[in-house]
Amino acid sequence: MKAIVLAAGRGSRMGDGTAEIPKGMMRLWGRPLLEMCVKTLERAGFARCDIGVVTGYRSDRINLEGVRFFHNADWAHTNMFVSLTKAREWLRAEPCVICYSDIVFHENAVRGLMDCGRELAITYYTGFLDLWRKRFSNPLEDMETFRLNQNGTLAEIGLHPQSEDEVQGQYMGLLRFEPAGWEKIEQAIRLPMKKSVEKLDMTTLLNHLISLGYPIYAIATDELWLECDNQEDIQLYERLYPDGGKKYG
Fold first, then answer.
1. What pLDDT, in 10s, does the model give residues 90-102?
2. How far apart are alpha carbons 249 and 52 in whole angstroms?
3. Which of 109, 129, 140, 242 lies at a C-alpha separation of 20 to 30 Å from 186?
4. Rounded distance, CA 65 to CA 76, Å?
5. pLDDT per residue over 120-147, tens digit each?
6. CB burial of residue 242 (10 Å; 0-12, 13-18, 19+)
7. Average per-residue pLDDT in the chain?
8. What does the pLDDT read at residue 246?
């Protein structure tokens, strides 16, 4: 099994913080986010040689020993899915856990994906509402729909909700694709979609797969998860969780 970290983006909402570094190199608790991602994957059981990092913007500023690097040279004109395809040789060969580089998560969430045995799976955070109320004056404005079927598969994701009832959890940016699942994805993107492949984000892809009848299993976690979207998020988390670096760093 492999792990793939998507770290190609600049993260324009970080403002001047990413003028010279990619978003994943922004620091929380004094540590680069990307470095913490890799450390968490190692605690979950991945050897460093089985961790891949997809770079793009300012790849020269990423210094990680022992990982496999992939590169999206067209990072400025493409979205996250294109970055993921740069690691297709791994995705076609064995199960892969995929994670974003701008999140903080617990190794147990990763282990849940590693152990689930599903072709297509994601994790979701159950404690999101309290976090969103701390991040936003009107939490619903920044929420996205996340609805589950009774069998635990994903019914809908990534649309604008009309009420909190349509948000049963928060997508975490952690996924598992087996080779058979990746094959389904490669077939699915050849069919008409709401966005071009170049502009395809992960939640739009997941909704597209749902529309084609492919089951995507959702695994809940209540372990702390954080999304670092801007510098205000980082300042908030350092204030709310001053000892976070001891557990996640």
1. 999 999 999 999 9
2. 19
3. 109
4. 25
5. 999 999 999 999 999 999 999 999 999 9
6. exposed
7. 97
8. 84
Token pair for 90: 């791994």
The structure's pTM equals 0.97
For the domain covering 2-240, report its CATH number. 3.90.550.10
Residues 6+ apart with CB under 8 A from 59: 22, 69, 71
CA-CA distances (angstroms) from residue 205 to 18, 19, 37?
27, 29, 23
Tokens of 86: 């740069």
Domain limits of the chain? 2-240
Nearest Cα residue to 176 out of 98, 234, 245: 98
pLDDT in tens, 224-237: 999 999 999 999 99
Give which of 34, 156, 42 is closest to 110, Cα–Cα: 42
Q: Give the relative orientation of helices 179-188 and 202-211 as an angle to the nearest 10 degrees.
A: 90
What tokens appear for 119 in the block?
A: 């072709």
Sequence letter at residue 153:
T
Q: Which helix (H) or strand (E) holds 171?
A: strand 170-177
Contacts of 192 (CB under 8 A, 6+ apart): none
Query: Concatenated DSSP letters for 231-245?
Result: HHHHHHHHHH-TTHH
CA distance 172 to 128: 10
* Six-digit token string for 137: 């004056």
Give one DSSP letter per residue of 63-115, joined into a string.
Answer: --SSPEEEE-TTGGG--HHHHHHTTHHHHHHS-EEEEESSEE--HHHHHHHHH
